[in-house]
Q: What sequence folds into this?
């Protein structure tokens, strides 16, 4: 699935916003952790200094004294430790060798010596994270000449902050993601608004109205440069098309006069009673080719003038059904002597407001095509009013049009059957002219065909231009 630019910009904005959010939260979390870790280490270091100073000043000889003096010092030491740590979420424990036996003195947590890991006193001096009585403690182990000691404190501040931060992130992250998606979509929409406007304007620009330009963009950014470049390119195309149209008109105009003179000379020569039959037959063939060439020149001039908008369209109200009936009668005459039946069905009385000469030319071209490519069978014409539309259809049982050729049949000089183009006299301009005539009257033309079964051409004209005759 191909994503639109707006969707891709929204995704990138959301991902960037999420990355920044995660980075900020991560930096804040690390900063808090670092701060709490530093405070904890400083506190434990202070306690280490206090215990070291206490032993050095008052209990340095506790490991060597005996009897009542030992008992008195031991009681004083436990009392000092309990007094300092009993009301805090901290503990202290000292391990002193006395008479080849390790004796423990502690304060702040009862039976702390039993709650510590079995190998704790064999570890190197340093700071450890331990779980004691289902709580997380930061413990500092240090060793001196008189023995070893450990001080610990709850790590609750770090975990409390982590828990609160987690609870905040549970609702903050989804909310932030929604904000990022909505904001990204809105920003992408605003940023691409000039692009959408330019695309809509570009859709309406065709060979018939190259005077239009993309809407002006006041910004000095890359899009402004693109709009200016495209407008300059359209201007160059307009100039080139105008030159080509002018050349086509001039060429057709210049060819028309000598072709008219040549046709007149050939007709005079053909009327010469003293000419031999072979000569008259040869003159007839040349005259037919000159007449066909004149028709091509006329068609070229019509298309060139229609492209430039110079062709005069004179609209009047006329009986469309009468025009269809007259074309039908001409078609019957042309089909005489061939195994071909011409039908006129559903001819409703309809008035139409349009250029009668162009509409008749449309009917002639379509009927001429049907006659050229239908060797036997039938050709049917119909005219009716459907709702607010006037529907004209011409169907034949000819050889049909291959599916791959249908999209190109309205292209100029395109022939479906190149090998028969000379025999049929087609120049590849007839359907292009038909399409222009229908478009000039605000209608639509469609062609459907089955190979070796026949072709149907449907012309739909706007109902506002037509009116039934009662």
A:
């Amino acid at each position: 699935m191909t994503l639109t630019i707006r969707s891709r910009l929204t995704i990138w904005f959301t991902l960037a916003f999420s990355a920044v959010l995660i980075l900020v939260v991560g930096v804040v979390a690390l900063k808090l952790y670092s701060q709490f870790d530093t405070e904890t280490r400083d506190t434990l270091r202070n306690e280490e200094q206090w215990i070291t100073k206490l032993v050095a000043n008052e209990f340095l000889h506790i490991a060597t004294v005996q009897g009542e003096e030992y008992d008195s010092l031991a009681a004083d030491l436990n009392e000092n430790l309990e007094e300092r740590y009993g009301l805090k979420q901290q503990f202290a424990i000292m391990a002193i060798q006395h008479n080849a036996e390790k004796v423990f003195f502690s304060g702040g947590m009862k039976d702390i010596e039993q709650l510590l890991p079995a190998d704790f006193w064999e570890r190197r001096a340093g700071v450890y994270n331990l779980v004691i009585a289902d709580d997380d403690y930061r413990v500092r182990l240090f060793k001196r000449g008189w023995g070893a000691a450990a001080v610990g404190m709850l790590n609750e501040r770090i975990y409390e902050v982590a828990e609160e931060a987690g609870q905040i992130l549970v609702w903050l992250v989804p909310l932030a993601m929604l904000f990022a998606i909505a904001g990204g979509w809105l920003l992408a929409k605003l940023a691409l608004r000039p692009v959408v406007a330019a695309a809509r304007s570009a859709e309406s620009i065709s060979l018939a109205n190259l005077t239009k330009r993309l809407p002006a963009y006041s910004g000095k950014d890359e899009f402004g440069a693109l709009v200016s470049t495209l407008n300059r390119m359209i201007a160059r195309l307009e100039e080139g098309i105008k030159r080509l149209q002018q050349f086509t008109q001039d060429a057709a105009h210049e060819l028309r006069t000598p072709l008219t003179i040549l046709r007149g000379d050939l007709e005079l020569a053909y009327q010469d009673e003293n000419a031999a039959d072979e000569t008259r037959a040869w003159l007839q063939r040349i005259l037919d080719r000159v007449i066909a060439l004149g028709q091509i020149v006329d068609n070229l001039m019509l298309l060139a003038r229609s492209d430039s908008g110079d062709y005069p369209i004179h609209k009047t109200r006329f009986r469309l059904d009468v025009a269809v009936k007259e074309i039908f009668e001409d078609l019957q005459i042309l089909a005489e002597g061939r195994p071909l039946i011409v039908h006129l069905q559903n001819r409703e009385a309809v008035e139409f407001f349009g250029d009668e000469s162009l509409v008749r030319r449309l009917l002639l071209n379509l009927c001429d095509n049907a006659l050229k490519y239908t060797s036997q069978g039938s050709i049917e014409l119909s005219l009716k009013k459907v709702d607010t539309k006037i529907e004209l259809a011409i169907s034949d049982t000819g050889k049909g049009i291959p599916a791959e050729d249908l999209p190109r049949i309205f292209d100029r000089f395109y022939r479906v059957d190149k090998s028969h183009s000379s025999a049929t006299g087609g120049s590849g301009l007839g359907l292009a002219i038909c399409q222009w005539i229908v478009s000039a009257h605000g209608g639509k033309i469609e062609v459907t065909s089955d190979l070796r079964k026949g072709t149907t051409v449907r012309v739909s004209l706007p109902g506002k231009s037509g009116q039934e005759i009662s």
